[in-house]
Amino acid sequence: MNIFNVAKQKGIEDLELYTSKSQGKNISALNGTVESYQISNQDLLSVRGIIDGKMGYVYTEDLNENTDELLNRLIDNAKIVSSPDVEEIFSGSDEYTDLGEISSEVVEHDEIISMVELINKTAKEFDSKISDTNIVFIENTNETKIQNSKNLKLEKKDKHYILAISTVGLLGEQKSSAFEFEVVKSFKDFNPKKIALDSAKAAVAELGAGPCKSGSYPIVLKNTAGSEILSAIRGMFYAENVQKGLSPLKDKLNEKITGGNITIVDDPFIKVGMNRSSFDDEGVSTSVTTLIENGNLNSYLHNLKSSKIDKVESTGNGFKASVQSKVGTSTTNLYIKENDSSFESLFEGIKKGVYITRVAGTHSGINGINGDFSLQSQGFMIEDGKITTPVRLITIAGNYFDMLSKVEKIANDMKFNLTGVGAPSMLIKELPVSGK
Amino acid sequence: MLKDQVIKDVLITALSTGADFAEIFLEDKVSNNLQAEGGVISSANNSHIKGAGIRVFKEKEVVYGYSNNLETDKLLKLASDLASSFNGAPIISEIIFNKTSSKDKHKAKIHPKDVSIEQKAKYITDAHNYAKSYDECISQTRITLSDVAQEILIVNSNGKYVTDTRVRTRIYITSIASKDGQMQTGSEGPGGLVGYELFDEINLKEVAIDTARVAKTMAEAEECPSKEMPVIMNNGFGGVIFHEACGHPLEATTVARGLSVFCGKLGTKIASELVTAIDDATIPNAWGSGNIDDEGNPTENIVLIKDGILKSYLVDSFNTRLMDHELRSCGRRESYKFMPTSRMSNTFIDNGTSTFDEIIENTEYGLFAARLGGGSVNPITGDFNFAVMEGYIVENGKISKPVRGATLVGNGAEVLHKIDMIADNLERAQGMCGSSSGSIPADVGQPTLRVSKMTVGGRKGAN
Description:
The complex is a heterodimer of chains A (about 425) and B (about 475).
Chain A: H1 3-9, E1 14-30, E2 33-51, E3 54-60, H2 67-80, H3 109-126, E4 130-148, E5 153-171, E6 174-184, H4 192-206, E7 215-221, H5 223-233, H6 239-243, E8 264-266, E9 289-293, E10 296-297, H7 304-310, E11 334-336, E12 352-360, H8 362-365, E13 372-383, E14 386-399, H9 400-403, E15 407-410, E16 415-416, E17 421-423, E18 426-434
Parallel strand pairs in A: 7-12, 11-17
Antiparallel strand pairs in A: 1-2, 1-4, 2-3, 4-5, 5-6, 7-18, 8-9, 8-11, 9-10, 12-13, 13-14, 14-18, 15-18, 16-17
Helix pairs in contact in A: 3-4
Chain B: H1 4-14, E1 21-37, E2 40-58, E3 61-67, H2 72-83, E4 98-99, H3 117-132, E5 138-156, E6 160-179, E7 182-188, E8 191-192, H4 198-201, H5 204-219, E9 222-223, E10 227-233, H6 240-247, H7 252-255, E11 277-280, E12 301-306, E13 309-310, H8 317-320, E14 331-332, E15 341-342, E16 346-349, H9 356-361, E17 365-377, E18 383-395, E19 398-404, E20 407-411, H10 412-415, E21 419-422, E22 427-435, E23 438-446, E24 449-457
Parallel strand pairs in B: 4-6, 9-19, 10-17, 16-23
Antiparallel strand pairs in B: 1-2, 1-5, 2-3, 5-6, 6-7, 6-8, 10-24, 11-12, 11-16, 12-13, 14-15, 17-18, 18-19, 18-20, 20-24, 21-24, 22-23
Helix pairs in contact in B: 1-2, 3-5
């Protein structure tokens, strides 16, 4: 018997099946020689259903799972939920944006290997101080389907390729390491030479770094460092966190929370976006949401549950952290809008400052509830408008929204990180730096 | 989980093009997760993870494939896809299974399946009530209770055929205090390789109240100053410093590739002579323990550093092919979706001879990091960072005012030499450790110890 009928008989009011099929390939090479090769096939099922107004979840990878037992576990899980929130299995949006077909190209193993060899050679030839390269190539194809008892049937496909290189520089006893990556939807869009050179340059430039003197400095925050910080605080924009008292943005709608030059957007349709999507994990049509517009907090990000509490429409951000998780909230492709300053112009007129190229430990060094941060950082000194000596083992500290109120210039170089969060490089008036 | 003949056929297929080793890892795991905010259960989830990972070695190359489709033809197809990476004549054509079973040294007393979901929910509401009633500034709590029961079967072309059962239970409590516009948190997550006897072994009330106390103290604290100073790291979760700064760079994942700061340092002094450090996966029912590792080898107690001298790296079977080092039982993975690699289990710095009071009394000025949050390390350079969850300034040999928002940064190779006092109060604490083979349970631990100088980054600035 069909699972929807069995569920009805058991008293489950509404039921939804969420399936994810994926194929993956992962090649890792040390100094241009393949060290490991991985392939995978996944066919995963998450089921959720409503009983007495409460939602229960079950997840299985067992293709021979007993339907009866699966639904019994779902019922147990639904019954224990004590939250008064109103849950819903969605009947569908009026319209869904058509994102077109995914690339159907077949990439031959030899093409990948030649690219890996080229990257290694390019990085090594750049400078004799490059001691090692570690290159990872990933190809992922994913197909997601949602089918529910309200006759909703949705399907989406995604395919992407990731190329990442970690380059090690060596000078005497001191090592440096740099990381560059690229995410593309079609294999031919990779720029292997560019990422090889970028990472090699960074690794060499960082050699010989040490802490700088503690003090307050003007800061140029590189795009990739800025996106790591934004990535760690993005939960503050989720209405469910605001409602639970876990965000400092409560009661701040339509108020100015950053400088007027800051606009932050969540855009599910960006062509090269890591999280390109026409519907979320509840089946709601996705949309472009401007979170901060010229400094004003415009909107939170909603799923169905949080939108009901706030009596607004869902923004289509009801995503699961993984197939087996419950529906929560997530950004799609989130970014701080770039401006028209050139990257070079950010440094103009800085007598003494610090250029931060990387931050580490964002999962622990940022308080996700109030935005305070103190982060291990590295980069370079800025002297008389020029990038000079490398620095490492320093911290920069502040509060995220304070920092965004002190941005003096924004460059035109917005770049997304591997989780689909992007930022342009920015000049910040000053931040406390701790070193020696 | 699979018939012997099917396993044999899969391994032989994987070896058909000249590989010298093949292994299948089968997993059947049920996990339950309850989550609550403000004592109200917001979600209950049940997951059934089941699948196989096949690993094949040929000299210094490894290929790995995994799938949750366990039908014979699908597994054979996966094995032959993996084999197609090599082209040679088979060198192994027969495998004789040597089925061994050993006593479960960590058997759970109260299996999660024997505990009702109502009882599980009660632990959560109790914990919430304890934390909430601590003080009116406790504005919110977040609590998750999770249990996992994992059955594994590992079979390889050397004839190894072993099984293991691992039951783990953990409660994670976060209290949030709001005061004068400040929101601060305190968290604790006790757990073990145990069932629900966990709640007989911990004092839930004390744990919950402690998270509330930390949150309140930090909400009332000043911002931490930024500068170099001596740092006293408390016992228990303070051991995350060793885990990040020294443990990760001792894993073969970086050492075998010549990338670690500790390469070529065996038998040499890499730490202050006060430091003895151990990785022990045999501790009964500890969070990071097991009967065997995820390559099927019986777990062991590994002395990493003895009196400051480096004694051993953590080396899994593949990495013994890349470096000249004895195999350690340390091959771990999150699930069949990950190829195992060298990982820590329960890793800690051993007891010293000072006392906690002596360390405080002998510190004129410094930071007492009573509780650390998480951190991370770059295993190539050894540069690390830790967040201080609960900190105090020490002045004139006494603990004075609380400070918040501090981050400690340093370099693993350097900081190990700067440990100048170690107390006698070793404790372990639980964490989840992330690396290339996924997120796995690991204990960190240490007695209270002092680092003579470290960069402390706070929001207050240098003055």
